[in-house]
Amino acid sequence: MKPRSTLATWLGGLDGARLARVLETRRDAAAAPEPRSVGELAERLQRPGSVALVLPRLARPHLQVAEALAALRAPASRGALAELLEAADGEAARELDAVLEALADHALVWFDGAGKLRMAGALRHAWDAPLGLDAPLEELLTGTTSDELRGMLAALGVKPPGTKSQRLAALVEHHGDPERVLSVVAKAPAATRKLLEDRAGARRARPARFIMSGSPDPDPEPDPEPGARWALDRGLLIEDRRRYGPARMPAEVALALRGPGRHAPFQPVPPSVERVSVAPVDVDRETSAVASAFAAGAASVLSTCSTTAPARLRSGGIGARELARIGKAAHADDAVVRLALETAYAAGLMARNGDYVTPTGAYDAWAEQEPPEQFAVLLQAWWNLALTPTRARDEDGKALPALGGAPPCNGCVQARHGLLAAAARLPAGHGARVTADLGPLITWHRPFADCSLREDTPFATVIREAELLGVLARGALSALGIHLRTGDPEALGVECRRLLPSATATARLGADLTAVVTGTPSTRLAALLDSVADRETSGTASVWRFSAAGVRQALDAGRTPEGIAADLAAVAAGPLPQPLSYLIADTARGHGRVRIAPAACVLHGDDPSLLTELAAHRKLAKLGLRRLAPTVLISRSPLDATLAALRAEGYAPVAETDEGTVRIERTRPRRAAPAVPAPRGSRARGAGRAAAPNRAKGSAAFDPSALATRLLAAPATIPDPAPFEGGAPFATDTEEIVAGWAKQLSYTDVRQLAHAIDTGQAITVEYVAASGNLTVRTLSRLELDPPYLEAWCHLREDERVFTLSRIHGVMPVGHG
């Protein structure tokens, strides 16, 4: 069995309610298969990938406290931390305690049995140099020879002891005294003094970018600055053993040069925002109006794409010309078009289909839903969208395509989440007087938020999107925003149904040959009106205009004039206007008076004078029409060309099939396969065993309190990860097979990978490629074939084979 970690000890000493709070904030660590002990939970919580998920969700004071603790090299006392942050008493001390409590709720910082503050190892490595401080002297001197230590001590004027360990201790003791360090630096050459002072006051390092392994990128630049040799000889700077990168300054030296009055930044209070009173009913009213308008606009945009699929650029995405065409047809502005396309694509309603982007089968089901349900799907997709969808231009002012396959932007997600967190902090019944003032609050709540857009007002695009969707109304967080932020889809659906009206199934048909629909038209009503009329406006009220061309289009699709009139009468709020009845009847009388049969082709009809007129028409001379009989003409042009030419001159011919029946001109909408293949069931093969048959029948709702109770009642330790050497108890054959081949995986990693195989769920793994590079892959459609794992790789968008022994880490997908 593994020894119990300090985190496991701390977790085991919590009561059920406190442990449930930890599980709620770190849901990825409780993902199926759920941990069996606090020891296994502690192992999951300290994985670099798990810490990487929670780090961007921390506010500025949480990151500041964590960075200060990393600089102190925990375990450290609370007093030392408070002194460094200048928060030893008063309100600042209370704010520090609140921040430490929040970090403990995230299992990132905790008190050990000696009352010292501990922190997750992966969190410590989130900064390459916390507060601009490098590692302590003793750590930097690892690998230094005894002779080199003797030389440093001699240069400092300290008599070197006899052994290497004694010399190291003497040097650490010397540099641990700030007065001694300052005395040595005072005697240094001017160039060395300037170098040391500049290095000690260097800018604070930003949090390092790290993947699941948590290793920051090294700095390959050499140290070109003069005066370094004098400092290197005295251990004031330490050179890498491989001469890689610049010389490094021990933390003790930097602190001595900075002096005792320098404190780490600590900003526990967010920036202030000018507020204005706003009634909840006014927030609801505006939310309802803008959300309804967007729902109607999005439905119109996607319906337009269903009728005529947008073409993709060679470079990928939908270009400005196609976006303008969609916007004109749907009567929607560019922001609505982009937002509708990106959210629909993320929700699986649209997908790439060759040179086009077309709706998927899921779109047809979505289109049949009521507007509140439709809107909820798109709103939820926006919340987790890893880009800023309405961003129309790049940093150079160049137009950006929609659905262009932009790389995932976690900072864009954090900007969105930070905006809602900032709005949620406003007092009840108040909103921001100017919503642009929420920008500085976003960076306080989410320092990792992306603000790379060149905007006069920070985060103006994100704020505008929130207003466009009704998440932010009158400068306040709406009911939609509240439930979106808390992650409660059921409550969000209830609010959508409360605030957005159901689809309208009737239209007001006017004598001016218009149809007016207030609210969002139902799918059936919109399809009917689109088939016989031209849509002029969309939004909170949509207007269609009837014309002979629209009615003829319906007749060409096989409708009868009686059927058209009956369908319109069924959806009309009153009787069918007489002008509309006359239009349908007049168009029907002229429809089909000329019939075109394929021969190449033949025109025939019952009216000889009409055919005489066609044969003599100068603009139709290019068709090569020739009379064969009083009621028959022949054309040298193909059927479709002849049909188009006659319609262009105002005639209303119909085409016939080879059997002589009227050809129905109905275009079948194009549909694409889903963008991401759905995971399929898997099985374990090889080694003479089959995978355990206990597949998940469905996941129950996550209950942190119940899980906390089970964990506190279970033994605290976790088994050794090697099943054949340590006798680890595995629940399924799949776990045992995986553990036998994936020797790099811990016990809990083995369980999670086996669970993904058995249930057909996707999983994220750390994988060492054949080149030796560490990559992070999301895999689905898993099939175990020891010593290999066959899976669909979402990074490569292809079926790939992975060697189990090269998998070094596992993380569940979809948590954070």
What does this protein structure show overall?
The chain has 816 residues and is an alpha+beta fold. The protein has six domains: 6-131, no CATH class; 137-207 and 214-258, no CATH class; 275-499, no CATH class; 508-572, no CATH class; 594-651, no CATH class; 704-812, SH3 type barrels (Roll), CATH 2.30.30.100. Helix content is 44%, strand content 12%. It contains 35 helices and 22 strands. It has a five-stranded mixed beta sheet with strand order 15-16-14-13-17, covered by helices on one side. Strands 21-20-19-18-22 form a five-stranded antiparallel beta sheet, covered by helices on one side. A hairpin with a 4-residue loop joins strand 20 and strand 21 (798-803). Helix 5 (60-72) packs across helix 6, helix 5 (60-72) crosses helix 7 (90-105) and helix 24 (479-486) runs antiparallel to helix 25 (489-499). It is elongated and about 125 Å long. The model is unreliable at 203-224, 677-699 and 723-727 (pLDDT under 50).
List the helices and strands and how they pair.
Blueprint: H1 6-12, H2 16-25, H3 38-45, H4 48-54, H5 60-72, H6 78-85, H7 90-105, E1 109-111, E2 117-119, H8 121-124, H9 137-140, H10 146-156, H11 164-175, H12 178-186, H13 190-200, H14 228-233, H15 251-258, E3 275-277, H16 280-307, H17 320-330, H18 334-346, E4 350-353, E5 356-359, H19 361-367, H20 371-383, H21 410-424, E6 430-432, H22 438-445, H23 460-468, E7 472-473, E8 476-477, H24 479-486, H25 489-499, E9 508-509, E10 514-518, H26 523-532, E11 533-537, E12 541-546, H27 548-556, H28 561-571, H29 578-590, E13 594-597, E14 602-605, H30 608-616, E15 626-629, E16 632-634, H31 639-648, E17 654-655, H32 704-713, H33 723-726, H34 733-741, H35 747-759, E18 763-768, E19 774-785, E20 788-793, E21 798-803, E22 807-812
Parallel strand pairs: 13-17
Antiparallel strand pairs: 1-2, 3-6, 4-5, 7-8, 9-10, 10-12, 11-12, 13-14, 14-16, 15-16, 18-19, 18-22, 19-20, 20-21
Helix pairs in contact: 1-3, 2-32, 5-6, 5-7, 10-11, 12-15, 13-15, 16-17, 16-18, 16-20, 17-18, 18-20, 20-25, 21-22, 24-25, 26-28, 27-29, 34-35
